[in-house]
Amino acid sequence: MFASLLSKDFPRSRSLSVLLVAIVLGLLFLPFMVQGVRPLNTAATICVYILLVASYDLVLGYTGIVSFAHGMFYAIGAYGLAIALDSVGPQWSSMLLGVGLAVTVSVVLSLVIGTFALRVQAIFYTMITLAVASAFGVLVIKLSGFTGGEDGRSFSVPEVLSPGFRLVENEVMGAVINGRLITYYLILLAVVVLFLLMLRVVNSPFGSVIQALRENQFRAEAIGYRVMLYRTASNCLAAAAATCAGALMALWTHQVGPQTTVGFAIMMNVLLMSVIGGMGTLYGAVIGATLFVLAENYLQLGMKQVHALVSGVPVISNLFHPDRWMLWLGVFFVLSVYFFPTGIVGKLRERRMRAEMKI
């Protein structure tokens, strides 16, 4: 049963298996182990980005398409949920309606982009997706009556998901079972289900074909596969998953805005997570998203403590000033690419293969 859940795509590395199990168990039991708003918010962000990075890897790592429009689908999911809950009301039916319409819009838009833009190759397709994403970002700001413009939109959620709701009066293992915690586990469950579905897709005959297109498009086309059809289908599947990730993030934050949805930094962060974790393997999304979000949330805090310890040393104290955390995040990325050119997952699997060959 466990093999079927993972679509027989095992980590193939003992170290990788330990890392993945540790991340899953950490996300599952963190609310009962660590109290506070920041840890739970970090865990929820990790969950959402795992789904978003995995969906992008379906396009970049498995199909070999470099797209900058992926963040646009993430924004469509966030705004779709926000507008539905704000306009119709904080009901479960409103959530389903918003997500359903957002996924439909994303798939249709992805189909249109793929039909016209995938006919060109390499950098030309990338520039087209960048132009479309930029135009969408401007549209979000200009349609202020619909999207809230630069201020964004706030909305209410169903009562059971609101922070004031309590399922039980007494604490359970030191945690308050309120609407916030229920929302977290709803997000975690949705991410696990969608991740397993994507794992099934990439290990299906369809997944084998899109990987063949990535390796040698002309050979795949010569033996009868329709390149445009498979690439467009991969684009649409990834867009639908990214839309769900955006809706889950909006459900967690109860607010959407252009800076948190259509900003170019989001697309860059997703790309960095894909490279760090390892492209062409969905497990890389789990590793990359976890490491990046943890660094983004706790690196500055750690540097603040180091800065206090070395405050008497002129050069070193300035180097570890909390305001320079982005510098160290960049150093972390450069080192990870240097020592793990195929990503952390790729490196661990290569190490396991070399060990097996020696035996």
Tell me what the structure shows.
Helix content is 74%, strand content 1%. With 359 residues, it is an all-alpha fold. The protein has one domain: Orthogonal Bundle (ABC transporter involved in vitamin B12 uptake, BtuC), CATH 1.10.3470. The chain has a two-stranded antiparallel ribbon with strand order 1-2. Helix 8 (179-202) runs antiparallel to helix 11 (227-253). It is globular.
Could you give a quick summary of the protein structure above?
The chain has helices at 2-5, 14-33, 37-60, 70-87, 92-117, 122-142, 144-147, 179-202, 205-215, 217-222, 227-253, 258-261, 264-277, 283-309, 314-319, 325-339, 343-358, and strands spanning 153-154, 255-256. The protein is mainly alpha-helical and 359 residues long.
Number of discrete domains: 1
Sum up the overall morphology in one term: globular
Average pLDDT: 86
Structural class: mainly alpha
- CATH class, named Mainly Alpha
Q: Major sheet, described briefly?
A: 2 strands, antiparallel
Helix content: over 70%
Low-pLDDT segments, ≥5 res: none
Write down how many β-strands occur, each being a DSSP E stretch of 2 or more residues: 2
Number of helices: 17
Topology:
Elements: H1 2-5, H2 14-33, H3 37-60, H4 70-87, H5 92-117, H6 122-142, H7 144-147, E1 153-154, H8 179-202, H9 205-215, H10 217-222, H11 227-253, E2 255-256, H12 258-261, H13 264-277, H14 283-309, H15 314-319, H16 325-339, H17 343-358
Antiparallel strand pairs: 1-2
Helix pairs in contact: 3-8, 3-11, 3-13, 3-14, 4-5, 4-11, 5-11, 8-11, 9-11, 13-14, 13-17, 14-16, 14-17
